[in-house]
Prior knowledge:
about 350 residues, alpha/beta, Rossmann fold
Amino acid sequence: MSASFLLQMLSGRFRPHDRSESLLRTPEGSIRIDVYEPTERPQGVILTVNGLAPLGNRDPRFERVNRAMAGCGFRVISPFMDDLCSYKIGVQNIRQVRAFIEAVQKDRTLAPRGRVSIFAPSFAGSLSMIAAADPAVSSGVDAICALGSFASAPAVIEKLFVEHDVDEYGRLILLLNYLHLSIGQNAEVEQALRLAIEDSYFHYREPMLPDYLELMEPSNRIVFESLRKSVAARNFHWKIIERRGQQKGQSVEDLSLLRDSVPGGLKAAVSLIHGKQDSVVPSSESRKLYEYLKKAGKKVRLTITPLLSHGDQKSPVWNLHHLPGLIAGFGFFFRHARQV
């Protein structure tokens, strides 16, 4: 099954399935969902939670995942998570994902047995594991596949914030979320950050940031450009953000998995898959999480592969000998996600 999944992903040729859009009511409000339905009786129900991207569940890369899983015989339910698609990071993300899981589990049309599995990349993978450990939903989650996720939020956020040789897209999102703790609310700088994020994401269109920079107040432009170019400037602001965040109850530690409540509540089998050269979240984070969950007696499998970057597939032509490991990683997930 996992070989078929990867073949469909690589080729873009998916087995027959249908897709429909509807509205799902949750304790956190209604959300728009896409439901991918296989042509035969579903082998299980997989919830796919998108990462920090404006197109969300309609991101072409994410659609390929959903279509390939439906092509493998699963009912796939993929929500458009407003906050994630607006680059908003916080504990509210965990509440929203938990509410989504619970709503699907209680809907006997979507999940006849009240049981689901979860696939999520990057930040969404980490918060989905925290959400799935909640006693309200944990007993109804069979399997989780987390792609390029982190164990320690403070360690990853500080690395992205401060270091020079990391993916700028992730750094810009963190700046948009946390910079106000250092400089206060600044609409011009926030808009510049938002445009820089969108220029990075929509790389095929004409950049919007350069024209906006010309209209900015000189002092705000200096702040923005120093944040993009200077490690010392980012380190200065990070120290302030870290201190004030703790004072205001906005500690990034709340987004970490290395807490007793997570392995204590988690009942799902967990497949951790990570790109060996991930430039956003280092693969050491999945290694750390694997050891933590293993020590807690959880059913967990780790796959570190050069065939992925930060969740994006790479050509396997020169790395065919690594395919069996990736197949086994997804196979572990699909095997525990099956309900027939």
